[in-house]
Amino acid sequence: MSLTSVVALKPPPAVGEEGIDKVLRALRTHLDMDVAFVSRFRERDRVFTHVDARGVSPLKAGDVLPLEAGYCKKVVDGRLPQLIPNTAALPLAMAIPETRALPIGAHISVPVRLSNGRLYGTLCCFSGYADTSLGERDLSMLKVFAELIADRLEVDQQAKDERLRKHRVICAALAKAQPNVVYQPIVDLARGQICGWESLARFTDEPMRSPDLWFRDAAEAGLGLEMELRAVEKGLAGLTQLPAGHYLSLNCSPQLFLSGRLARVLATCDPSRLVLELTEHSIVSDYGALVASIEPLRSRGLRLAIDDAGAGYASMRHILQLRPDIIKLDMALTQGIHGDSQQRAMASALIAFARETNCSVVAEGVETLPDLLTLRRLGADKVQGYLTGRPMPLALATLWQVPRLPELSDPKAL
C-alpha cells in the first residue's frame, strides 16, 4: 500500500489572497473611487500588498514607498484625518507631493490592525477628483472592511507560519537521512513463493506519526519531491541484494514522474525488475503528459501498477487512462473478504477486468488464511500482507522465506 499518496497534493495558495482582492474591488466600486489598496508597514517603508484600480493604476502590488511618503503614515499618526472628501481644503494634504503627482482629489484611509492590536498597515481609497459626497457612513464601512481584511491576513499569516514550521521539520528529517525504508514481500499464489518486494518508507524522527502524514507535510512545505526521491533512492539501494528473480515496487506520485528527475535516478537500474506504483489518491491533472513521461521507462521493461484499486473512483480513472501492468487491490476490499459477499463481488469484477486487459492482480493487506484462499479462488495472482510477511529491514528480507501454508499447494483448498 502506498505511503506517498498525498505527495501529489500541491502546497495550497495563501489563504484569503483572492478574497482580499475581491473585497478591494467591491469597496472601490461602491465608493466610486479610482484606486483601493492595502499597504503593509515595515520598519522604514510600506509595501502595497493588494491593489485594485479603475483603468491604469499608478500603483501595483509589490510597489514600495518610504513610510513617510504619501498619506498612510500621517493618517495613522493623526496628522491627517481618515476622511478627506476634498484634498484642496487641507494645506497639509496639498503639501504632499503625491497629491498633485497622482493626483489625489479625495482620500479615505483607516488602519488595519490584527487581533493582538498590532498595526499591520492601512486600507486606503483615493480618487483623482474631489468627492464631497463621501461621509461618515463611508468611513464606517471602510473600518468594517478593514476588520474583515485583518481577519483574512491573520489566517494567511498563520498558514504561512505553519508552512514554515513544516519546512523546518522536513529539512531536519532530510538532514538526518530520513526516511528509512523497509521491504514487504509479494507472494505469487501459483507458486507459493516470493516474486517481489514493495519498498515502504518509515520515519524514526520526531514527531512520531505515520509516513503518509510526513509526505503530506513535505508536499505542503514544497519538499514533496525531495522526500519522495529520497525514499526511492533508498529503496533502490537494496535492489542488488534482493534475489535476482524478484522485482522491486516503488511508490511514485504523478509529480515525480513529470519532474524528469525520476528517470535520472532509475538510469542505472534494470527496468525489468522495477514496478512503479501510482496511488488511487494521487491527483492527475493531465493524463496525456503523464503517459508520455512514463512511456520511455515502460518501453525499457519497467511495469506500472495502480495502487489502492477498489478504494474509490480515481483508481478506475487511473486504470482506464494509464493501462497499467498491475492492479493492486486495496486492503479495505481484501480484509474480511472471506465473509463478505459484496467485497467478493467487487474484487471478482476487478479481477475479471484485469484478466481481460492482461493485468496481473496483487491483493494487499492479506492477514488471514481464509481471505488468502478466497482471493486465490477469485483469481488474484499475488498477495501482500502480514500473513506472508510484514515490512522488514533489508538484511532480513534477503533471508526471508514464505511461511509454510500447506493450503497453498492443496488443490482441495480452492
How would you describe what is shown here?
The chain has 15 helices and 14 strands. The chain is an alpha/beta fold. It has two domains: 147 residues, Beta-Lactamase (2-Layer Sandwich); 238 residues, EAL domain (TIM Barrel), CATH 3.20.20.450. The strands form two sheets. It has an eight-stranded mixed β-barrel with strand order 7-8-9-10-11-12-13-14, surrounded by four helices. The N terminus is likely disordered.
Provide the descriptors you would attach to this structure in a database record.
414 residues; 15 helices; 39% helix; eight-stranded mixed beta barrel; Beta-Lactamase; 21% strand; six-stranded antiparallel beta sheet; TIM Barrel; disordered N terminus; alpha/beta; 2 domains
Compile the SSE list and pairings.
Elements: H1 17-31, E1 35-41, E2 45-53, E3 64-66, H2 72-77, E4 83-84, H3 91-94, H4 97-101, E5 106-113, E6 119-127, H5 136-175, E7 180-188, E8 193-202, H6 211-220, H7 224-236, E9 247-251, H8 254-259, H9 261-266, E10 274-278, H10 287-298, E11 303-309, H11 313-322, E12 326-329, H12 331-334, H13 341-356, E13 360-364, H14 369-378, E14 382-384, H15 394-397
Parallel strand pairs: 8-9, 9-10, 10-11, 11-12, 12-13, 13-14
Antiparallel strand pairs: 1-2, 1-6, 2-3, 4-5, 5-6, 7-8, 7-14
Helix pairs in contact: 1-5, 5-6, 6-7
